[in-house]
Design goal:
two-stranded antiparallel sheet, alpha+beta
Length: 165
């Protein structure tokens, strides 16, 4: 390491692993231990490529498959709150290639029905019927269900004080 012992400090601690008679300052000793831990512990490779919060990213993963910036065909299903009203939006990219040169008009947002039967049918019609990102069909359905369940509120149960016990 770059610093193993120091003799010009007030607080001196004996370090057993540094050799015979080697001493270090207490704070440096802690820092030295942390550095050893960082070098000795090798974290396993994660299976995901990282997280991303870009618009049009279906899973929030930094991957070409789900990216809204890297691919020309964008797909995202998200929830939108406007006051008390909650809605589910499906974001796709514009079909005209000329719109991809304009940053403000690349993405199109379409409302999706909240009824499970109608909403899933609407998503499948847009993806399978329009031959648009059929590989993300199952992921889009799962995200639709998750967004829909996120809108549910916990019902408050009021107990009557007058009811018999």
């Amino acid at each position: 390491f770059w610093l193993k012992c120091c003799s010009s400090v007030q607080e001196v601690v004996c370090v057993p692993g540094l050799g015979k008679g080697a001493t270090c300052h207490g704070a440096l000793f802690v820092d030295l231990g942390v550095r050893e831990e960082q070098q000795l512990v090798h974290p396993e490779k994660h299976e995901y490529a990282g997280l991303s919060s870009e618009a049009g990213n279906l899973c929030g993963l930094n991957s070409y498959k789900f990216s809204g910036l890297a691919s020309s065909n964008v797909l995202d299903i998200s929830g939108k709150n406007s006051g008390a009203k909650e809605s589910i939006m499906m974001t796709t990219s514009h079909k005209k290639a000329s719109r991809h040169a304009r940053p403000g008009s690349i993405l199109l947002s379409t409302g999706v029905k909240k009824s499970s039967k109608k909403g899933l049918a609407q998503i499948s019609k847009a993806l399978e019927g329009g031959f648009y990102r059929r590989d993300l069909m199952e992921v889009a359905r799962a995200k639709y269900v998750k967004v829909k369940t996120s809108f549910k509120k916990k019902k408050l149960v009021f107990k009557s004080r007058r009811a018999s016990k």
